[in-house]
Amino acid sequence: MTSKPDGNHIPPDQQEMPLIEHLLELRNRLLKMVLAVVICFAAIYPFANELYLWLSEPIRSLLPVGQTMIATDVTSPFFAPLKLALVLSVFVAIPVILYQLWSFVAPGLYTHEKRLAFPLLFTSVLLFYAGAAFAYYVVFPLVFGFFTAIGPEGIVELPDISSYLNFVLKMFFAFGVAFEIPIATVLLILTGATTPQDLAAKRPYVVVACFIIGMLLTPPDIISQTLLAVPMWILFEFGIIFGRLAKRETAEPDADESAGE
Fold first, then answer.
1. Distance of CA 239 to the CA centre of its chain
2. Which of 61, 108, 162, 234 is deepest in the core (most CB within 10 A)?
3. What is the reported pTM?
4. CB hemisphere CA count around 149 (13 angstroms)
């Protein structure tokens, strides 16, 4: 004898949408994402030069008096601020982009999955922003101070604006992604790929992996490598803690469903 499905067993959207409707909805969501980026770009671009000055402040403040940054390419004074404005537009529009993705996949999720998915989505945005902020306010002053202090005497440091921009964007991305470790850890636990106990047992290997990743994603100096590896390890520990809580949260709806059958 089979029991009738209820709201906890099947997603709210009972009827399967035809493929063409899924594609149309996906197109509409993508257009909204692009529109959000375009609106942000239109608002940010007029201040692109000022934003570049703010972004380059950590290294400009360490240059000797009378020295400044240079542009080795004729087009760099135009394209460097333009690239920065475009990247910042995507950066600012991330909440809208993730919300559109959430709205697209949410109808296919179970009730208890929705209860966990949205907090994970919201937390992932905050963690990415936190990683970028950590790179700018903590890592950059230390790394640039180290680089400017170890140079040979008689060498004039004139950082190129395009090279600097590429470097800091890489660092923003590296730290933003690294700060997503708790989310990845929780998802691995929720999908059953591993357990909190297994992850805790592999802690020594994870610590080594954090330093290897720090070595690969940051400049070849021990300061920036450590500043990336140590937060990654701490965030991994938080991921285990939140993974245990999330596992307990999902176990309760599953138990209720089993009892109701």
1. 15
2. 162
3. 0.77
4. 7
